[in-house]
Amino acid sequence: MELIDIHSHYAWDIDDGIANLDDAKKALTKAKNQNIKRIVATPHIIPGTTNDLNLIKQRINDFIKLAKEYGIIGYCGSEVMLNDECLIGLQNDLIIPINNGPYVLVEFNLSRKINGDCLDYLYEYSLKHKLVIAHVERYFYKDLDLSMINSWIKQGHIIQVNSSSFLGENGSKIKKNAYKLLEKGLIHVIANDTHRASRHRFPNLHDTYELLSKKYEEKNIRQLMYDNPLAIINGKEVLPVQVKKLSLFKRRK
């Protein structure tokens, strides 16, 4: 099963992701072994801190060339922080859309509660771009705000959840959030959010695919990890996936 990752930090030495070229090679080796065939490089853009896209774009191009050596197609992108300076960043076009198409990956500050200002920023960005909201399961440390998440979907935003959350790498609460979003049909895409070559947030999409396809209809998991990511890369419309649990008799061991 071929897989696609639309959220990654392989472009080395420009954010908190892959540190150097050697680690990028190690991570790409693991990605190849995980049968990841397409990767969107989405380095962090933090308005107020990131002022020049030239180095970021150059490093993304370096990554795309390197990925070819591993039989992987690379694409440009970015992960834009919706912070208090982001509207200035929007005015200055401090954004790299996914594959230079309509979709932009955005995130909220994990250390702050999502408030009215955050939602205003989301709205302003949505006037110019189709938004993919990164790792939604990680913003809610108590209970998921299902009303808020449903409103995002109704507004046309794409909900992305990290593969590592299903594996429990981010703790039991975040794992519970991920499964709840999955079973309520509130996820459009599962992505890796690769930051390292090993230990934590390393390439693990196939591991997650194998885990989930033992419990849910395989075609649904394929939608989340191949069909919808490919549609996003190609700038096409995607819908949240209504997953169906397998009966105990049909589950793979």
Automatic annotation (TrEMBL):
The keyword Hydrolase applies. It catalyses: O-phospho-L-tyrosyl-[protein] + H2O = L-tyrosyl-[protein] + phosphate. GO terms for molecular function: manganese ion binding; protein tyrosine phosphatase activity. Its EC number is 3.1.3.48. Gene3D superfamilies: Metal-dependent hydrolases. Keywords: Hydrolase, Protein phosphatase. Belongs to the metallo-dependent hydrolases superfamily. CpsB/CapC family. This is protein-tyrosine-phosphatase.
